[in-house]
């Protein structure tokens, strides 16, 4: 039987909407996320791009912060799919714990703050 405990827990903690995240990527990226490895790859890509731009010795330009936002959106879509398909047997998300999913949201929240700092740095240098 379907249990929505994870959705309730995430919604209460992060005020995260339960509807599918919609942006200019559409459903195509959402459909590519099938395993926890896909999600971890998305999180890793965002972490790498943030580290790269945080350790820069050059000025940021708009297309670089747009790249960060696009990568962040992909990460958000991937983590949202874990929540929305956690109990779906066709997806391989059920073997991770609720605490691990919550920690993904905490990491995403931290990465968002870091991306906002980079965006502010770019705006200040203009």
Uncertain regions: pLDDT < 50 for 5+ in a row?
Answer: 16-22
- Total of domains: 1
Main β sheet profile: none
Radius of gyration: 16 Å
- Tell me the fraction of residues in β-strands, as a range: under 5%
- Per DSSP, the total helix count is 5
The count of β-strands is: 0
Fraction of residues in helix: 55-70%
Class inferred from helices and paired strands = mainly alpha
What sort of overall outline do the alpha carbons produce when their principal axes are compared? Answer: elongated
Q: H/E order of the elements?
A: HHHHH
> What is the multimeric organization of the chains shown?
single chain
Report, as a whole number of angstroms, the end-to-end distance. Answer: 55 Å
Mean pLDDT, nearest integer? 79
Notable characteristics:
69% helix, 126 residues, mainly alpha, 5 helices, PIR Superfamily Protein, single chain
Description of the molecule:
With 126 residues, the chain is mostly helical. It has helices spanning 5-14, 26-32, 36-54, 62-84, 98-125.
